[in-house]
Amino acid sequence: MGDIRTSGLGGIPFGGDSLRPSNPLLGQPYFNGEEKRLELYTSSGWQNIVSETPGVVSVSVTYGSIGTATLQITGTNFTTGAIASVIGSNGVEVNAISTTVNSIVSITAEFTGLNYLNDPYDLKVTNTSNLFGLLPDAFNVNQSLNWQTAAGSLGTFNEQVSISLSATATDPESAAITYALAAGSTLPSGVTLNSSTGLISGTLPDIGTDTTYTFTINATDGAYTISRIFSITSVSLFEVEALVVAGGGGGGSQVGGGGGAGGLVYSPLAFFTKNSQVLVTVGAGGVGGPWQGSGSRPGDYGQNSRFGSLIAIGGGGGGAHGSGVPASGADGFITQAGRPGGSGGGGGANSSNGAGGSATQTSPSGATGYGFSGGTGFVTQWAGGGGGGSGGAGGNSSASTGATGGIGRQYSITGASQFYAAGGGGCADTNGTPGSGGSGIGGNGAANSGNTATKLTTDGATNTGSGGGGARDTGPGGDGGSGVVIIAYPSTLPAIASIPGTLTYNQPVRAGYRVYRFTAGTGTITL
C-alpha cells in the first residue's frame, strides 16, 4: 500500500500505517488496511474504533472475609474501561466492585456478596465495545469454617494419665484444614496438638493441685481462620503404694488343723484424689478353737482389712477333730473341715479337708489343706497372695505328723523385707511331730507325747495376717495373727495431717518415702 486511497465509505481515507494523515483533526477517521481496522484520531493518537473480542484464559482467587474474593484474571485483548463480572449457578450476574486493567492481558477484580450456594461461578470480561469473553465454571466461593467441637471443657482427667481428645472443624470447600495454637496459648506439658487432625494427645503431667489448662486453637482452610477456646482440667492425685493384709484364721482344737492365712492385696500404685478421705480398717486375727466339754471347735475366721476400695478377706479357721460345734459367726454346724477364707482355708483335722479361698475372691483361691499334707501358698486376690491353709493334723497312728502351713508372700514396703499371710501348722497326733507355721511366721502346731497334757499352740505372728497353729486334746488352737495396712508414698508429698485415735500405727523408716503401718482399729484418714 504505497499510496492513500479512498475507501468508498463516505470518503474515509484508506491505507497502511505509514499513510495515515500527517496532520489529522481530532475525530478524523481512517481505515487501516494493514491492521484491518477502522481507526479514529484522538488526543492519545490513532485508536481502534471497534474493540477486539477479549478472551479469558485463567483466574487465580484470593479469598477475604466471607463472600469476598480478589480475582487475578489472565487473558487477551483487555481494554481500558473493561468490566469483570461473575455469573452464579442461579443465573444472576454480579459485577465487580472494582476492575483494574493492568495490561492487555491482565485484570484485577474485587467482588463482594458471593455465596457458595451459587457455586460454580462463570467469569466474564466485557470491553467498552460490549464484546466479551467468558470462562465457564471458573471458580468456587470458599465457605466459612465450622467448628464441630463445642467450645469450653474437653473433660476432666487424673494427673499423669494418657489422653486422646479431638478438636475439629469442617469446611465443605476444603479438606485441608490445619490446626495450630493461637499466639500465647500452651497445652499441658507432655501434650501436643496434631496440626493435620486436631487430635490433642499425650500424658498429663504430675501436678501439686488441681489445674485447669485453657488454650485457643486456630483452624484454617487456607482462606479463613476461626479461633475457639478450650480447656482441660487435671485432678491432682495422691500416689500410694499399699499392702492390705486381713487377719489370719485361728487354729482348730483337739487334733486341730492350722488356721488359714488372711487375704492379701498389694497395689504398687493406688490413686486417690488429693484431700480425699480414705477408710482404714485393720482386721483382727481369728480366735483359736477351744475345747468345749463334749466336743472341739474349729478356729474362727480372721477379720477383713481395708484401705479405701482395697479389701482383704479374713483367713479361714482350722478344722477340729470329732463332732464340732458352731463357731462364732458360722452358718450351720461345723464339724471336721477347715474353713474357707482369705489367702487360704484352715487345715482339716485328721483326713478332713480345709477349703481354699472363698468365692468372694477375684483370683485363684488358696490351696486345700488335707489331714496328711499341708496346703501350699498360692497367689490370691487381684494383686498378690499369702500362704495357703495349713495341713490338718496327722492321722490316728501314734507317730502322725502335723502338716506345715503354706508359705506367705514377701514385701519390702516398710523398707525391710517381711513375709505376710502364712498358714498355721497342724498339730501332731500322739507322739508325732507338730507342723510348723509357713515361713516361720504362721503359728506352729502343738507337740504331743500322749493324751495326758493340754498342749497350747503358738499364735500367728502379730500383724502379718498369718494363721494360728492347731491344738491337741483340750488345748485351744492358736489365734490367727492380726492383719495390717501399710501405705508408702514419696516423701516429696505432704505428711498425713491427722490420724484418728481409733487407729494404731507406727512409721517405719524407708529412704525417700513416708510410711504408715496401721496395726489395729478402724478410722478415716485424709490423704
Q: Total number of β-strand segments?
A: 34
Tally of separate domains: 4
Helix percentage range: under 10%
Strand residue content: 25-35%
Q: Give the distance, in angstroms, between the N- and C-terminal Cα atoms.
A: 109 Å
Main sheet?
A: 8 strands, antiparallel
* Anisotropy-based shape: rod-shaped
Please identify the structural class as seen in this structure. mainly beta
Sequence stretches where pLDDT stays below 50 over 5 or more residues: 323-337, 350-399
Please give the count of helices. 0
What is the arithmetic mean of pLDDT?
79
Q: How large is the radius of gyration?
A: 47 Å
Topology:
Blueprint: E1 5-6, E2 13-15, E3 29-32, E4 37-42, E5 45-48, E6 55-63, E7 69-76, E8 83-87, E9 93-95, E10 98-103, E11 106-111, E12 121-126, E13 132-139, E14 146-147, E15 152-158, E16 162-166, E17 169-170, E18 178-181, E19 191-193, E20 199-203, E21 211-220, E22 225-235, E23 237-245, E24 264-273, E25 277-281, E26 291-292, E27 295-296, E28 305-307, E29 310-312, E30 409-411, E31 418-420, E32 484-490, E33 503-506, E34 513-526
Parallel strand pairs: 2-3, 15-22
Antiparallel strand pairs: 1-2, 3-4, 4-5, 6-7, 7-11, 8-9, 8-12, 10-11, 12-13, 14-17, 16-20, 18-21, 19-20, 21-22, 23-24, 23-32, 25-28, 25-34, 26-27, 28-29, 30-31, 32-34, 33-34
